[in-house]
UniProtKB/TrEMBL annotation:
One annotated GO molecular function: metal ion binding
InterPro entries named among the record's database cross-references: Heavy-metal-associated_CS, HMA_dom, HMA_dom_sf
Keywords in alphabetical order: Metal-binding
Pfam families: HMA (PF00403)
Signal peptide from the UniProt entry: none
Domain annotation HMA: ranges: 3-67
Gene3D superfamilies noted in UniProt: 3.30.70.100
Descriptive protein name: HMA domain-containing protein
Length: 67
């Protein structure tokens, strides 16, 4: 069963930032869909058994922080 989790990402300021976060989070085990809204800083991740810590680590790897 898929669930959607929402996070707030700090530090994004352009489409390149969105692309970097999307690429990193898409590689997390169980992630089926990633939606990043630049204006609100909202990151929505849909998938089965997605680990919050893994999503946070992926955002960190992209160079941003989850608030």
């Amino acid at each position: 069963m898929s669930t959607t989790k929402n996070f707030t990402v700090e530090g994004m300021h352009c489409q390149g930032c969105v692309n970097a976060v999307t690429a990193e989070v898409s590689g997390v085990d169980g992630v089926e869909n990633v939606d990043v809204d630049l204006d609100s800083g909202r990151l929505s991740v849909t998938g089965a058994d997605v680990d919050d810590a893994a999503v946070r680590a992926a955002v960190d790897e992209a160079g941003y922080q989850v608030r």
